[in-house]
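Per-record layout

source: Cupriavidus malaysiensis
name: histidine kinase
length: 444
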Amino acid sequence: MNKTHQRKHSGGAWTGRFARAWQAVFDTAARAALLDEESVARLRRIQLVGMLGVVGHPLYYWIWSHVFPQRYENLGLRLLCTALFIPLLFASRLSRHGWLSPYALFAITVGLPFAFVFFYLENAGALAWAESVLIAVVILYHFSTAFATISLLSGTAAAVAVFLLGGNSMASIPWDAVLLQLPILAFVIAVLFVIKIDRQVLVEQKQRGMAAALATVAHELRTPLTSLAMTVDGIRARLPRVLPATDPQLPVLLEAAERMRADLAHVHNSIELLVANSKDPLAATKALFDPGTAIHEAIARFPFEPGHARLVRIEGCEPMQVLGNAQLFELVITNLTKNALEAIRRAGKGEIHVRCAITGDSIEVVFRDTATGVPPHVLKQMFQPFFSYPAHRGTGIGLAFCRNVLRSWGASISCDSVEHEYTEFRIRFPRPELRAELLVGLHH
């Protein structure tokens, strides 16, 4: 009786451990909060391929060895591929490690194109393995084109090399089957390319549609927001007339009205950003302006919460001229300020430092906050449209808008960050006098 109970208890414990292990493999919800949708989808693809490899290689070794025996099988290679795929099951947990991507490329290359092409050659181009190679190609091209092409070419080359080093000659390669397979492979890859292009077109259409929708919504919101702002201004003006100066409620109500005004101004700035993003920056009027003045005006108009204005320090912005649009540049600074303050709020610490300087042939604006910083995988995607960090924090169009605007002026923006320490944006404008000299030289 005790032994039976122990076996049941042991079985229940192993079942619980197994369930918890698989739950850990697929539980990406917490980590998804730190990633954009594209990164989450890529990690899930890696996990699913890992699961296919861990299950598929042992399963098909048994099928091709005992159910439908093939000419050649290799248990050692199957076990190696299975072992390589196991870490891919935990891709979401390992996403913070820089070695995950190269390891995934290596493991998938060995487990799919290398193994499948090698078995294809050893089985003299058998139909089952010809179809398996096609399936491997389809799986590969669900990843990026560069990833799939590198994996396919390197895996195939390695498989041919190992096949020949194993004592086979060039004449042992099933050339008729290979030549018959090549046009089919080329057609499959071409179809996969067309599907990828179609997906990209759909993404671009989605971006244009969202921009148009945002512009429409922004236009409709302007009128009620203006009305609310006027109402708040009226309340602030009348409160001192209605309540005596000694009334303790007067400063509280005035502070509340001021907070409402600041919130309305913040929403208005966000709407202006949406409207500007929906338009072509190239169509905006360009003229010489002083970036230092634009920075001071953007910060002065920013709807800071009480006490937050003192966190911003503007340094060394002496009078200088750059070519662009002052109003759009103020929106760039407003967006960077908003993001930095949100990071400071999350971290519970930090300051914002803005400085301007002439460096060589460019004028630089450095915008730095000492709050949360961002991890390397986020840094690579900072300027992608609709990317936000943390995920779903905003629309994800702010930094993409900043980059597009600056590029339209011949300027650039880059980001450097150390997680938990700082995030620094560096904006570079070409010096107008050097640009004019270059244009004169080109005309001559």
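summary: The chain has three domains: 24-173, 212-276, 282-443. The domain at 282-443 is CATH 3.30.565.10 (Heat Shock Protein 90).
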